[in-house]
């Protein structure tokens, strides 16, 4: 079945021209704002071409811009290509700022408008697929990823979820160890009971014991009432001990006794309290090396690590980077009611080139900042605080901003000459929209390109 394209234009001649040139599509028409909204609701097109000069005031763009806002309010994922007069760049850029995908200046060239529609349609379909991937959780629920590295880990986690075997999650900071722990809990027989997490590295050594085991009234100065610790709070459920490699050596002996006998004594107490919980531990440290250095008990290591799971860093999950980025983009766009909808080609290349030392946590932070700070609907590499990789880097200039600007300026000029000074073809070669190309030309003061010199 052909894709539906909505053409909003009151010029019957243009309607006829587009009808005969867009034979690969199911083309429907509207000649004013109310009929455009009616057709949008009826046919739900992925792509709309919108003439900004609509009745009752075709000489101005106000009616067309209002139609654009209403279309995107009703169907925010629709790709709208606005059509303007020959010298109306100002309103075209205003439309881009409101969320239009691209613009085209009259007179209409059938081949060019068809190219724009195909590009918009392909992008819309790709974004649909990404939304489905983001919403369709794999068997392990919260975990997002299609790479072999993460799939292997997920299969291992699935196998142990239904058991109470002690599990040790190993991996760099920011790789999502707590997400894995929560997911294992949610797929276990204990899923309806509490999941209690405690970070052993974030609590002072003199307080960690009472936080874990609780304390009796009068056990120490300020202990005005009996308080249940994290272990008891997790009764029937799962206790997640994050950064267990940072647990003081003295407390490790008490933890070992609990894991062996499944009873605890509160600080200052004498009664043994039975506890039925599953324990999942995690650390970013080389815990086997710590055993060799005698900073971590060997017997505790074997008790907590019956099944160790190594969670790969993000740099080893290149296939998942853009999927994760688009998932976070959709989430933060809704959280902050932001305009950003997609990534430029440069941003995608920059994300794939970055080493991500902070792993998924770093990616989340960069995406959150970019969604809030981005000026338009397309996130650029600069919004992410990343540098787009350049083949022209010679290693002599170490100022990253200057390197990027020089590389982009050179690439624009090269593409412009290769495209025989045609702006549409230049944008296509660079993999950007024409509005982005015009913005880059202004940014890098390449005014001679506008005059065709």
TrEMBL record:
* GO molecular function per UniProt: ATP binding; sequence-specific DNA binding
Q: Which residues form the Sigma-54 factor interaction domain?
A: 143-372
GO BP of this protein: phosphorelay signal transduction system; regulation of DNA-templated transcription
Q: What keywords were assigned to this record? A: ATP-binding, DNA-binding, Nucleotide-binding, Phosphoprotein, Transcription, Transcription regulation
Q: Which residues carry this modification: 4-aspartylphosphate?
A: 51
Every copy of the Response regulatory domain together lies at 4-121
Indicate the segments annotated as coiled coil, or none if absent: none
The name of this protein is: PEP-CTERM-box response regulator transcription factor
Query: What is the originating organism of this protein?
Result: Alteromonas lipolytica
